[in-house]
Amino acid sequence: MKENLMNRSGKLKIFKLRNQILEYAWGSKTCISHLQGKDESSPEPQAELWMGTHPMGSSRILINGKEESLLELIRQDPKRMLGDKIARKFKNELPFLFKILAAAHPLSIQAHPNKIQARKGFEFENKENIPLNSPERNYRDDNHKPELICALTNFEAMCGFQPIGDIVERIKYLQLEDYISMTKELETDLSIKNLKKMFSELMGKHDDVQTKKVSILVNKIAELGPRDENEKIIFKWISRLAALYPKDMGVFSPLFLNVIKLLPGEALFIEAGVLHTYLSGCGVEVMANSDNVLRGGLTHKKVDLHNLIKILKFDNTGLIKVQPKYSKDEYIYQTSAEEFQLSKIVTKEKDPFVNSDIQSAEIILCTEGRGSIKWSGSILELKHGESVFVPFSISEYSIEGSMELYKVVIPTG
Length: 413
Known about the structure:
By secondary structure, the protein is of the alpha+beta class.
């Protein structure tokens, strides 16, 4: 089987990937389609394009005229594909999942578990005999899911709780003290304990009395109006969310969470337990190889507020913007994640990008332009929307042409 991994000269190959596109209602009909060079929109909303080896949607490669999953390719020879150190550390598996994410509408308000929580949750749902593809699942694997989103277009998101004092002050400005319990207690004692209780009680009921509060909130922001640019954004999203989910208490989430804008090239890192949602825009996203999501609202999928509250961080440390650092012709987005490191590469005609120090397996995605990747006398043409898998044992490659690319590697330091 190993000879299938070689080119005609007996050298290890770089593989072009065929990737799965997931269609969710919140997806865009234009972003992924146009990124792949298609003039027409897609007939259905395309939400995510997956690059990696997750069992629910592994990328595929062509070997001797036949398609094979990237997952199986790596399992055939994990040391040469990943590198011995990485193979041992991550049990012969590619530890990251790379995506294009395209949000025309807001995603659910959600958070991801840490490793211990994921292991316990996965084991529990297995014992309950809940099928892996069931919509009743919170845990589809036993892994954590730190993630980084890097904007390709103007991008808006909510991420992490605001400072408690700011939350209380805005509730009082909107004259909502009689509708949001614990306001007075929280004003007296700005504690995480009281914030947790306020948020849990507000979000935890969806009866007629509770959902009338959404209408009251919308009326209050219209009556009183925003006082600054930040409140303009907060009130804008309250109105939009209320139009989409008029009976969902998640409409209140912009009062509690940081509402932010990312410009193209700006990035946001989200750790375990950080409540967040992506509101609009297209970006590249990379995460630990997991699909575990606990949702609290703004969705027609399963909401499990009880278990979500258990994993949430209610302090105001969840908003982590990442500025890239330039090093060796790459703009590197450094995070605390062990599973991945994202970088941006811009090449120009007659100014190729050369990598002669490959530390781990890589996936490279072209987001603009066209050119080629060359190694050991071999060449692959590469254009926008296409991606390749570079095995660890490739000694050197060069990328030529006028392109913008995003590369994911596994940190070895």
